[in-house]
Structure prediction request, 803 residues.
Amino acid sequence: MPLLLPSLTYRSLPFLGRSLLVALTLSLPLLPAAASAQTAGAEARQHYSVPASPLEAALNRFGQQARILLSFPPELVKDLRSPGLDGRYTVADGLQQLLAGTALQARANGQGGYQIQPAASRLAPIDVNADIPVSGAATPVPVYAGGQVASGGRVGVLGDMDMMEAPFNITAYTAELADDQQARSIADILVNNSAAVRLTGARGDLNDSYTIRGFPVNNHDVALNGVYGLLPYWRVPIEFAERVELIRGPNALLNGMAPSGSVGGAINVVPKRAAAQPLTRLSVDYTSDSQVGTHVDVGRRFGEENRFGVRFNGVYRQGDTALEDQSREFPLMALALDYQGERLRLSSDLLFQKEKLDGVIRPIQVAEGVSMPDAPDSDRLFGMKNSYSDAQTLSIANNAEYDFNEHVTGFLTFGGRKNEWDTVAANVVVDGDSGASDFGSARQRAERRTLVAQTGLRGRFATGAVNHQWSLSVNRLKHREGVVYQFGAPVPGNLYHPARDLDVDYSSLDGHIPTTQEYVFSGLTLTDRLLMLDERVQLTLGARRQWIRTDNYDQGTGAKTSAYNEQLWTPLIGLAVMPLNNLTFYANAIQGLSPGDAAPLTASNPGTILAPYKTKQFEIGAKYDSGRFGATLAAFQIKKPSAYVNSDNVFRADGEQRNRGVEVNLFGEPMDGLRVLSGLSYVQPRLTNTQGGHNDDNDAPGVSREQANLGFDWDLSRQISLGARWIYTGEAYLDAANTRTIPDWHRVDLGARYRLSLSGTPVVVRANMENAFGEDYWQGASGYEGVNIGVPRTLTLSVTVDL
Prediction:
């Protein structure tokens, strides 16, 4: 398997050498502390299975499995429930999970046992346990040391997995990190992942978009609790999210085919749930230029053994953004209900989001033969002052789980989404020197309806010395949308001059929106995890049958213009080997799916829709976990087909983009009060079998070979914390011919927190500055939609109070 990149050239070595030296230099001072922690306090992980139950029963069962003595007075745990646990844990981590949300802690007694006692009160940060749910199935994987990431996450149909057991490179960002960085959407959180992700959509654009391992991922391919088609279509808010989870690379078996066919990776959002402790949290915030907002977060549990839970998050912000001539209005309401019974678990999430932007940033295109222009001022609104985007989404998602016995659980998810959108924006094409451009305005209106359902069984059994964890699931996503649009005549202008109003009448688009596309994605998935040799060797096998049906209609006549009905298999092979308690080697072979393109009218096969594209990934890697400090190393190869009209004038999928890369990530709290979230990556994005061979071995447009993040957060005292993040993205080519480049860029983000107590009430004051030095740069490009302006210098202030 040619993964370790025999084609690396000498020009890549200086960056790799410098970057690895930086990473090692930063890490070496931390290793003694990490090694000390490993030697002094590390414990062997083993598998525990404790169902959600009354806390006393759960602790007794855990003590028997761990062969340790737990002591506690019965009245201390009376009427409390435990979320349970199922997976590999150290004794300390297992106890932390069992006690989640109870305001209790386990303290070692020095004799191999533990004393259960009330958690010590502390002034610094607001108690994150208030955000940990109590349900067994709904409880996220425990938070990793430092609180910025979790120790694992959801791996599609395989369910929640510890990061050391998953045969994939996964990261789960926490609500605590989102609060401390004052993120405004999941895009702001994903920027922390240098080794895989870059944001390609501008902050003031219509939508968020990403590249993961060099391939574009659309915002409407973000999942909620592992299910596509439920979240806001253009931008996903962060305030209702407990976790934002990322799997790098293609994942059709794990999550099904993404609605728009993204293959770079999978993004999943886990919503907040009510915790055992009552929560009433109020935040007020300010964002430059003059946005003011508030966020209310309330959680309560009711009934016998606190089985019923309610969590509400409400947000309202309004005012001018850091972009000149742009304002934003943003209301959000999210209601989460859940019931946690002995065997039955239910939850329902209702989400309403509306976002109105006046003054919209859009990607720019650079005409053929024109040099790449310098980036304008990062706070410049080029295009139209009277442009706007008005989008709103209403979603509901319902989940149910039932334990038939200790070995088999059934699950069901069903829900839907309604999205409405109206925009007038300028499509900017730079077609001359000194920023001379054409501004071609357009109006688009859309209505979208999505219905989703997923059901199945999962369980466990043993064959001799091999334990099996299996799952069988079926899913269906039905989407109907109507999109109408009208283009205005281009108007000459300049990229570097202030935006102006364009007088175009688009009233003809008012009224009814006809259906222009319908698609149905269905799938049947079977997986089996084989756990061998005391679970130190784990082999994951799976297969998915995917059905894809799409119908397209003319927006004017309603006549069907094309149809598509295909079905195919996508397999999975994953292996995780744990020779030591703190070291894992892993490998996977998995595929991604994308709908085939339609042949242009100029081809000899006009209108022909190609079969779905299969993107194939091979990956190997290693993971290290000291208990406080973790690191991952991954090498991968991803091949995605591409189509063009060949020399015989036939539209065929004969081309290919092949990305080979290496990623390194560092995370955790290697020493008390110092948190690390850093990494680097190197990717070779080769084009092969291009049309006529003209661009063979060139770099794919919009893919940066070199990316790096250095992120640190440290406590100066119990009251004061400081944070800093440096983001670097190497240059990329604008075109497949590699004649024009997008310059490399970097920026520095700063943050600070001050914690205090006012008459016993915890208060946190936060300040963050994105792009602190005001760099002007072109943010990452998709290569086909154009490039976007970078983030302007943006100051965000907030005060959070627990009432």
User: Anything to note?
Assistant: The helical segments are 13-27, 31-41, 55-66, 74-77, 91-98, 175-181, 186-190, 252-255.
